[in-house]
Amino acid sequence: MDNPLNMKEVNQVVAAVVESVSEDEARQPKRYCATVFPGPQTEIDRTFAESVLQLESLLGMSLWLIVQNGSGSYKNIDDALADAVYQQRTELFSEKPVGLLIHSWGGVAHSAYRIGRIFQRRCKNLTAVIPNVAKSAATLLSLSASSIVFGPDAEVGPLDVQMWESDREEWSSALNAVQALERMNAFSTSAIEQLVPLLKRRTEKKLDTLLPLVLDYVTNFVSPLLAKIDTVEYTKKSRELKVAEEYAIRLMMPNYPLEEAERIARALVENYPAHEFVIDRNEAITVKTIKAGKVFGLGLKSTQVSPEAGKALDLLGASVPKANIIGRVVEMKG
């Protein structure tokens, strides 16, 4: 008959089993989720999650994510996203630095403003972090921060409001209609300035004689184009662009002098010819006069990070999944 184990031997066996289980658990890769979406029960990409947590450590701030890189829920900045952020507002109170990591192609200006204000009211030190893209309404949202950390290839875009065209059943840029009229005005002015001296040199006639002819020529050229502009739609789109400009000013006022906030907001609405226009990191943080009345860049406040943090941000930008991720990244329980 075998001798029974004494208590010392039992304890040794139990300790060995516990140690073996602990080693097995340690070998298991950690699993991560987002606190808001897709929620605590859904695992998100581990490489991306670990990149976010590494960046948090290097920047010395907690990161709140608005990553919109997929279809379905929260694919745009809209009222649903603003409501979700509002529901989490008690989690935002912080005396420590908070980073708002944005990867988004935009959405609704009104919603971006709401989200920006929610963060501003609760985070004493808010920094926007842009690994890749924060365009349109996402650009507007980034202006709520006291400073922006740009990835090496990060880009923002004009505050160009997208509006639904019911007759064409597609979204279109408000900037298209507004700048079309501005370009026609610029063409008319330029044509008059060029034609009058040219005709004066060639015909040697007086200005009183030439000017009516030039005005008649320009009017006949432009009138068919102007006739195609819906003045009601033009006014509506022009007003929406003004809304985005005013929201930008209000979001920047806590961190910029009013005159500077107005200049930046106006530039984001007026200085870029297309919705897709790329404003890279250099242009976003630079501001310089290149000739009378012409200024290059925006002059946004930015934060220089350590080389390690910069590299981590670059790697994070490359690992952004094709998914929508909202909230904090945390380790899954169980």
Beta-strand segment tally? 14
CATH class bucket of the largest domain: Alpha Beta
Strand order of the largest sheet: 6-4-3-2-13
First-last Cα distance: 43 Å
Considering the chains and any ligands shown, give keywords for the structure.
334 residues; alpha/beta; 2-enoyl-CoA Hydratase, Chain A, domain 1; 2 domains; five-stranded mixed sheet; three-stranded mixed sheet; 11 helices; elongated
Any chance you could write out the topology, listing elements then pairs?
Blueprint lengths: L6 H21 L4 E3 L11 H14 L2 E7 L10 H9 L10 E6 L5 H14 L3 E5 L2 E2 L2 H6 L4 E4 L4 E2 L5 E4 L4 E4 H30 L3 H21 L3 H22 L5 H13 L8 E2 H5 L2 E4 L2 E3 L10 H12 L5 E4 L1 E3 L3
Helix pairs in contact: 2-11, 3-4, 4-8, 6-7, 6-8, 8-9
Summarize the structure in short.
The protein is of the alpha/beta class.
Explain how this protein is built.
With 334 residues, the chain is an alpha/beta fold. It folds into 2 domains: 32-157 and 278-331, 2-enoyl-CoA Hydratase, Chain A, domain 1, CATH 3.90.226; 172-275, no CATH class. The chain has helices at residues 7-27, 46-59, 79-87, 109-122, 137-142, 174-203, 207-227, 231-252, 258-270, 281-285, 307-318; strands at 32-34, 62-68, 98-103, 126-130, 133-134, 147-150, 155-156, 162-165, 170-173, 279-280, 288-291, 294-296, 324-327, 329-331. The strands form 5 sheets. It has a 5-stranded mixed β-sheet, with helices on one face. It has a 3-stranded mixed β-sheet with strand order 5-7-10. Strands 1-14 form a two-stranded antiparallel sheet. β2, α3 and β3 form a beta-alpha-beta unit. The longest helix is centred in the middle third of the chain and has 30 residues, at 174-203. The protein is elongated.
